[in-house]
Amino acid sequence: MKSAFLVLKEQIKHFYLIRRLSLYEIKSENKNNYLGMAWELINPSIQIMIYWFVFSSIRHREPIDMNGESVPFFPWLVAGFFLWFFIYQCIIKGSSSIYSRLKMLSKMNFPMSVIPNFVIFSNLYVHIAMLLISIGILNAMGYIATIYYVQIIYTLIAAICLVFSIALITSTLSTIIRDFHMLLNSSVRMLLYLSGVLWPITLLEDFPLIMKIMMLNPIYYLLQSYRAALFGSEWYFISQWEYTIIFWSIVLVLFLIGSTLHMKFRRHFIDYL
């Protein structure tokens, strides 16, 4: 518990630095590209068009039920895919964030726990841009903005808490055990098909136990909350309060584990160089 409070205190104290480093991070990653930061938008856009072509055009998808409203597959996919892309990027980049910067550690005058966080924030800027594009697409398709959009703020905060908690664990393990990062990369790709990004988990209603287990996935909770906000179907975190409690319980446990691991090993990170 002491480690958790210390890590949280470091994030608050160095929040301004996290914002500055996150902007530098996103600029440095694209400085050698002709299109620069535009690739941050082009890449996920290409991916979603591929998934739409495969899952909607080649394999026809029936409209998805959103709390009584029938939603075509493409807008349903748009409403959740970019949040998934943000989570995926944060988990993968967050896991290698400390190891890839080990040579900088001796020159740093800020705590290591902010490293995964500024990597997350650098991806957050891209996600917000993609979110605005998604909102424009959905509104053009007739899904007009509603008061439920306020729910997006809650979901974004929840997503940041989740990926930061995961990043504390994975960045530590990836530094100690290098093979862990490769295993993580493969495992997270599987979550694309197990978290309700490309298909509604309710299709498994004939297998209620499996469906219930998959609905406990915190990523599924975030996706459903996003879609409920963008389609104005419900206040998901209230109507599904049981899953809200489960989600934050999972985040708390992950944060406690991650902060404990981070504080225990961070003095020795330089030894793994």
Tags for this model:
2 strands, two-stranded antiparallel sheet, 273 residues, mainly alpha
Overall description:
With 273 residues, the chain is an all-alpha fold. It has one domain (2-272). It is 70% helix and 2% strand. The chain contains 11 helices and 2 strands; from the N terminus they run αααββαααααααα. The chain has a two-stranded antiparallel ribbon with strand order 1-2. The longest helix has 27 residues, at 114-140. The mean pLDDT is 85.
Q: Could you outline the blueprint of secondary structure elements for this entry?
A:
Layout: H1 2-13, H2 15-29, H3 39-58, E1 64-66, E2 69-71, H4 73-95, H5 114-140, H6 150-176, H7 179-194, H8 208-215, H9 218-230, H10 236-239, H11 241-265
Antiparallel strand pairs: 1-2
Helix pairs in contact: 1-11, 2-5, 3-4, 4-5, 4-6, 4-7, 4-9, 5-6, 6-9, 6-11
Individual helix count: 11
Major beta-sheet overview: 2 strands, antiparallel
How would you name the oligomeric state of the polypeptide chains in this document?
single chain
The share of residues in extended strands comes to under 5%
Helix content: 55-70%
Unreliable segments of 5+ consecutive residues: none
**Overall morphology:** globular
Radius of gyration equals 19 Å
Q: In whole angstroms, how far apart are the ends?
A: 29 Å
Strand order of the largest sheet: 1-2
Taken in chain order, the helices and strands follow as: HHHEEHHHHHHHH
**Would you report the number of β strands?**
2
Please give the domain count. 1
Average pLDDT works out at 85
Given the helix and strand composition, which structural class is it?
mainly alpha
